[in-house]
Design brief:
This protein is an alpha/beta fold. The chain has 43 helices and 16 strands. The protein has a seven-stranded parallel beta sheet. Strands 8-12-11-9-10 form a five-stranded parallel beta sheet, sandwiched between helices. Strands 13-14-15-16 form a four-stranded mixed beta sheet, with helices on both faces. The chain starts with 7 loop residues before the first helix and ends with a helix.
């Protein structure tokens, strides 16, 4: 009214005063100066009252009004807010910025800048954010959102971006700071509400001067180099073992699984035959066809008939007609030709004086001599054999030959011998060349003398034609039989064996006519087997008399063994492995990878300090001014002032800002103060708070569980953002609780299998309690009896520990603030009286039901708070649960328990009247009580699960024959064993072992299909083991090669591990 306008930003701007700082006296003088222009007697009484007189809510309202006014006149220039307001360009910007392809494989360790034990999805999310993308990260209560936020922040810092972390729960802010400290980057973070901002920023500037001398980055590079080598060796081995061989179309792992399966056949195949590689390759994909042929051969007696069983064994007869023909030849020779030949030999010996022939070959030569002799006697008279044949031959030489060779015989002598030779010609016989004819006579005379050395005229036996015919027929039959019998054990060459032996052999063939019934079929199959390179296997089966169903196993064993040996011989890595070397490499990988992850934090801190150092040296004057201001007047320095005057240096010194929503609106300007804001634990945040947070950054990352987000504005923002889903780590949460949460809309949860003694339990503690209504609400929001019950549960939990693990957190969730305040006072009093309880209470957190989102807890005590009236009636109102999103708050609170959940209630489900429950929150509360009232204390075990899960386990066990065999061997030692142990929708353990009278304790992993389906080496070899160990299992690995090569050695290892757990005396 009087025209006096006092502006806060001007009054407290130090540049307006000579001293450079807004001291109290000069500020008051400035106020008085302006006020006296309207009020001449204006003065200020200088009584200073310290306190907070501005409600953050009013600031939120003012800021939201400012944002809405800006939106009415156009865009505000903030992509997130503009997109939520429906601006198409802003929406497109959010959804189409720098898309990066996700890879489940581990990245190059040199490029990993995310601190902590996070998976590749989180690293991918961090890379997306560092590339300038806004993002929604969908997590459930099994994920540590503070760790995810730290990983994203560290990656952004390396990328040169500033980060603002805004949790909606104070406890989560503490966890985030603790996580940064754990990974040695807490010096990069600044709490906006910190009263010692100047001190911390100045200390960072001073420390940055010497940052160039740190060794953290070189250590990071060194470990990353080693990790690349170790991971490469590990990957190469598993690749050779599980990779599909191009030649065979199967992997070495599949071959040993098949060989193990074959070894477990009831017939126990045992052939040592190895096929030729080319033969085995030709059989690929046709094993069943060959198996049928082997069975056909078995039906024909191929593997029961041996060489000594039949003289026909091995004979080359391929069809029935040929068999008939061959047998008829045997009959003809045996019954006709041999007896006739015997008589003819006798006649010839008597007539001609020939020696008795012993073989058909000798008889054939004698008959040939007789045939030739007959030709000579048809031309010459027998007396010619008594004359001087040499002289006649010399005399009958042609003239040309005599001149060429010379001769001593005179004309008359030659004439005499020629006339003599002609005189011995038979009447009517004509000879064209007497000389050649006489030479033939001489040859026949010589042959005759070989059989009849005493000389004399050659004599032809009677019926020579019959003899010749019989001998020729015999010869033809024997030649034909030779072709058939050449492949038999005794071979062929029938013409050269003695007549007695020939007759005996033919008699044997004649007597075993029945063998010819199956011989053609066997011969055809044998020919196929021989061409396919299976003759050795056939011989082995025959030698061992393998028949029937046993044949299949033998054939498969020969083929798979050949394949395995060829694959092994082609890989120098596999051929020198028995499992122990593989374990050494895996252990080394775990060690180096752990060192690598630990080295990331110091590297990030050093690189950030190096960047700050470079910035200080490039802005020397500005840096000196900032240092002078920080060192000279630390108490008067605010974050707002630092940001206004030295934003670049301050954000380089402290690139990670931490603030609650109320802190932001009270202590920072309504403009971007960081590149990226990470919003955590804000599932139930108010709309105006979200707008205030978004206005202070250029991009946003939201960490929340999508199914339980109740904030309308946050749901709207999430729907506009690209998203990734992070799978939580293992928890000991009760499976019953997990199923309840899934059935009531929480979403899918892991169904992990802790050891029985560590399995999470849900207990309902119902008490009788009454109370007095609170004036503000008219509800009975607490009762002393329920407070005492909660305190007693805390005592009981404390007594279960000798030493409380540093990671243990017990959260008490309350539905009312009144109960929370009273419980806090009770616990404070208890801590003063009991020092041990005071130490345990450091692990206890009190949260409202609306603060559970994003929190972390090992065990949870949920107090329902409300009590009955003195008349025993429950008032049907339930505070926060009545609000929109009340059911989501309750689900978040229930899911908070990673192990035990204790529900304390002063009323039952029957006290809640259905007709008066209109909101989802109270309805879910009643369902919770009804469910909890029926709970069983019996632990849930996979072996007690339904038939579907048992069938799944059995089918998987059949696929992993090596471990099924290993289980049988362990079971034979008197131990309890289960294969493919676990629940549906959860990770199954390949093998679990325990003492017969105790629960399972040892989890045995292997490189099975489930293991190899995990594409991240870090996840496969380290994170899975850590998950199982967190569930209480003693974890060991039995590699498939070790289980195949020496299963008993692996059994000894498992038994030894149990001995370590329980003591050898167990």
């Amino acid at each position: 009214e009087r025209g006096v306008q006092l502006r806060e930003d001007v009054l407290f701007d130090g540049s307006q005063y000579e001293s450079g700082t807004p001291e109290t006296s000069v500020v008051f003088d400035a106020i008085c100066k302006q006020a006296r222009s309207a009020f001449t007697d204006f003065d200020i009484e200088r009584d200073i009252i310290l306190g907070c007189f501005t409600d953050a809510g009013s600031r939120f309202v003012a800021e939201s009004e400012q944002i809405i006014n800006a939106l009415q006149s156009g865009n505000v220039g903030n992509a997130m807010i503009d997109a939520m307001a429906g601006d198409d360009r802003a929406i497109h910007k959010l959804q189409s910025a720098n898309k990066l392809e996700y890879s489940p494989f581990d990245a190059d360790p040199h490029s990993e800048c995310e601190v902590g034990e996070v998976d590749n999805v989180v690293r991918y999310a961090a890379e997306l954010v560092a590339s300038g993308n806004s993002l929604f990260v969908d997590i459930d209560s099994g994920s540590d959102s503070a760790a995810i936020a730290a990983a994203i922040a560290s990656r952004s810092v390396i990328a040169g971006h500033s980060v603002l972390y805004v949790p909606n729960v104070v406890e989560q802010q503490r966890r985030f700071r603790y996580t940064l400290n754990t990974h040695e980057i807490s010096s990069l973070a600044l709490d906006v509400a910190d009263g010692h901002i100047a001190k911390h920023v100045d200390a960072q500037l001073i420390a940055a001067v010497g940052a160039r001398h740190s060794i953290a980055t070189s250590r990071f590079e060194q470990v990353a180099d080693e990790l690349v080598g170790v991971r490469s060796r590990l990957t190469r081995y598993l690749g050779d073992l599980h990779g599909i061989n191009e030649t065979w179309g199967v992997s070495a792992y599949q071959t040993i699984q098949n060989l193990a399966a074959i070894a477990m056949f009831p017939t126990h195949p045992s052939t040592h035959v190895r096929l030729d590689v080319s033969a085995a390759h030709a059989m690929t994909g046709h094993i069943e066809e060959w198996s049928k042929k082997f069975h056909q051969a078995d039906e024909l007696g191929e593997f029961r008939i041996n060489p000594e069983d039949t003289p026909w064994f091995g004979a080359s007869i391929f069809d029935e007609n040929e068999a008939i023909s061959v047998y008829q030849r045997v009959v003809d020779v045996l019954l006709k030709l041999l007896p006739a030949t015997r008589e003819q030999v006798k006649s010839t010996v008597q007539s001609c004086g020939f020696p008795v022939p012993t073989t058909a070959r000798e008889w054939s030569r004698q008959v040939t001599v007789l045939k030739n002799l007959r030709r000579v006697l048809d031309v010459f008279q027998p007396e010619i054999f008594e004359r001087d044949l040499d002289a006649m031959i010399e005399a009958s030489k042609p003239k040309v030959q005599r001149k060429a060779e010379g001769t001593i015989m005179g004309f008359w002598e030659r004439r005499h011998h020629v006339r003599e030779a002609r005189s011995l010609l038979r009447v009517g016989a004509k000879v064209d060349d007497l000389h050649e004819a006489l030479k033939i006579v001489a040859q026949q005379a010589a042959q005759w003398r070989t059989f009849v050395p005493h000389g004399g005229w050659p004599v032809l036996p009677p019926k020579l034609d019959d003899i010749v015919n019989t001998q020729e027929l015999l010869a033809r039959h024997l030649v034909a039989l030779d072709a058939v019998l050449a492949t038999t054990l005794k071979g062929a060459d029938l013409e050269n064996i003695e007549f007695a032996q020939l007759e005996a052999r033919l008699q044997d063939l004649h007597d075993d006519r029945a063998s010819l019934d199956t011989l053609p079929g066997r011969c055809n199959l044998e020919r196929e087997f021989s061409k396919a390179g299976l003759s050795d296997l056939v011989s082995d089966l025959r030698r061992r008399n393998v028949t029937g169903n046993a044949i299949d196993g033998e054939l498969q064993l020969a083929w798979w063994t050949t394949v395995f040996e060829d694959i092994v011989n082609s890989s120098a890595i596999i051929s020198h492995q028995d499992g122990s070397a593989m374990q050494d490499v895996s252990d080394r990988f775990v060690q180096v990878d752990t060192e690598h992850v630990r080295s990331i934090g110091p590297m990030v801190q050093q690189e950030a300090m190096r960047h700050l150092c470079d910035l200080l040296f490039s802005h020397t004057q500005e840096a000196n001014q900032l240092h002078t201001m920080l060192a000279g007047n630390r108490s008067g320095i605010t974050f707002n002032k630092l940001l206004r005057n030295y934003a670049e240096l301050v954000l380089a010194a402290k690139p990670i800002l931490v603030a609650m929503p109320s802190t932001l609106t009270m202590m920072t300007p309504l403009r971007p103060i960081a590149d990226t804001v990470i919003i955590d634990s804000a599932s139930h945040i108010s709309n105006i708070e979200l707008l205030s947070i978004l206005s202070r950054a250029r991009q946003v990352v939201v960490l929340a569980h999508k199914q339980t987000v109740s904030s309308e504005s946050l749901r709207s923002l999430i729907s506009l953002l690209p998203s990734v889903t992070v799978v939580s780590r293992a928890t000991r949460r009760s499976l019953r609780l997990a199923r309840f949460l899934e059935e009531h809309g929480y979403g899918k949860l892991r169904h992990d299998v802790p050891v029985e003694r560590l399995q999470g339990k849900v207990r309902l503690h119902q008490i009788e309690a009454t109370g007095v209504p609170v004036m503000s609400s008219g509800l009975i929001e607490s009762s002393q009896r329920e407070i005492d019950e909660v305190v007693e549960l805390i005592r009981q939990r404390a007594n279960t520990f000798t030493v409380v693990p540093s990671s243990y957190v017990l959260v008490v969730v309350t539905l009312t603030n009144v109960f929370r305040s009273r419980l806090g006072a009770e616990l404070k009093s208890l801590s003063i009286k009991d020092e041990n309880m005071a130490r345990f209470l450091r692990h206890v957190r009190l949260l409202g039901v609306n603060e559970a989102s994003g929190a972390i807890a090992t065990d949870v005590i949920m107090s329902l708070c409300y009590a009955k009236t003195s008349h025993g009636r429950l008032l049907q109102q339930f505070g926060l649960l009545e609000e929109e999103g009340g059911s989501s708050m309750l689900l978040d609170a229930l899911a908070l328990a990673r192990r035990h959940l204790d529900i304390v209630s002063a009323f039952t489900s029957k006290d809640m009247e259905d007709e008066r429950l209109h909101q989802d929150g109270p309805k879910l509360l009643k369902n919770l009580l009804q469910w909890a009232e029926k709970l069983s204390d019996k632990p849930l075990r996979p072996e007690d699960a339904n038939d579907v899960e048992a069938q799944i386990a059995a089918e998987a066990a059949q696929r992993n024959v090596l471990f099924t065999d290993l289980a049988e061997r362990i079971r034979s030692r008197g131990l309890k064993v289960a294969v493919n142990y676990g629940f549906d929708n959860g990770v199954r353990i390949p093998l679990v072992v325990g003492l017969a009278d105790k629960s399972f304790a040892v989890a045995v992993l292997t490189d099975d299909a489930q293991f190899m389906s995990v594409q991240s080496t870090r996840e496969r070899h380290r994170m899975i083991i850590q998950d199982l160990e967190s569930l209480g299992w003693s974890v060991m690995t039995v590699w498939s090669v070790g289980a195949f090569v020496n299963p008993e050695k692996e059994v000894d290892r498992v038994v030894s591990r149990l001995g370590e757990l329980y003591g050898d005396n167990e």
